[in-house]
């Protein structure tokens, strides 16, 4: 059982520790109690009864909501492995879950006729994956330029693998990355003191926005 469901569980001793006049405390228990006739307002038995049933219903609804999350890539957690196996993606539990979701989503987007739009669509599944695509028919190649981030984007290796899986074998792909240039830095009109206050190394400055 997941932590999301377990955090709703309350022991009997916890229930007995409450002032029964304040029961029910669970959301579904309160909803159930609201449907009862008014003369049950002072009934300790009915309050405890709806609290007990409400806790079970809270667990049920939490489990249903969590199960529903597994049907959508962007919210899947423990069900993400099922998506990966279905799409023949290597399961790597050590990888951050957002990166795993990006791989699955890009695989789902990779169907159809290969085009620049498809490449942009697949890349968009990844964090900071906004790209421009330039084809060079005479060289049988195309270039993917990352415009959504400076420097190397995260999850780059997974994106490269996704592109290899969708591109025609006869086309070569090149990757271009953007960095801060002096002209852009000059446009900031920073004084030397302001520049020093940035506390940026040269490597950090290359990807500074």
Q: Can you tag this structure with a few keywords?
A:
three-stranded mixed beta sheet, 11% strand, 209 residues, 11 helices, mainly alpha, 48% helix, 3 strands
Q: Radius of gyration over alpha carbons?
A: 27 Å
How many angstroms separate the termini?
A: 44 Å
Arrangement of strands in the largest sheet: 1-2-3
The chain-level mean pLDDT equals 82
Number of helices: 11
The stretches of 5 or more residues where confidence is low (pLDDT under 50) are none
Q: What's the SSE pattern?
A: HHHHHHHEEHEHHH
Number of strands: 3
Strand portion: 5-15%
Helix content: 40-55%
Shape summary: elongated
Biggest beta sheet summary:
3 strands, mixed
Structural class: mainly alpha
């Amino acid at each position: 059982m997941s932590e999301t469901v377990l955090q709703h569980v309350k022991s009997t001793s916890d229930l007995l520790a409450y002032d029964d006049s304040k029961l029910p405390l669970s959301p579904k228990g309160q909803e159930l109690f609201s449907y009862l006739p008014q003369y049950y307002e002072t009934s300790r038995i009915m309050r405890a009864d709806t609290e007990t049933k409400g806790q079970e219903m809270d667990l049920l609804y939490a489990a249903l909501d969590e199960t529903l999350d597994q049907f959508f890539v962007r919210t899947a957690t423990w069900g993400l492995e099922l998506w990966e196996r279905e799409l023949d993606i290597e399961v790597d539990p050590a990888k951050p879950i957002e990166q795993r979701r990006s791989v699955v989503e890009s695989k789902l987007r990779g169907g159809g006729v290969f085009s620049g739009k498809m490449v942009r669509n697949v890349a968009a599944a990844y964090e900071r994956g906004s790209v421009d695509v330039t084809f060079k028919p005479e060289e049988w190649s195309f270039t993917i330029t990352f415009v959504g981030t400076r420097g190397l984007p995260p999850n780059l290796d997974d994106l490269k693998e996704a592109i290899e899986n969708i591109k025609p074998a006869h086309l070569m792909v090149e990757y271009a990355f953007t960095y801060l240039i002096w002209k852009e830095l000059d446009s900031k009109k920073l004084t030397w003191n302001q520049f020093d206050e940035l506390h940026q190394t040269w490597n950090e400055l290359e990807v500074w926005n």
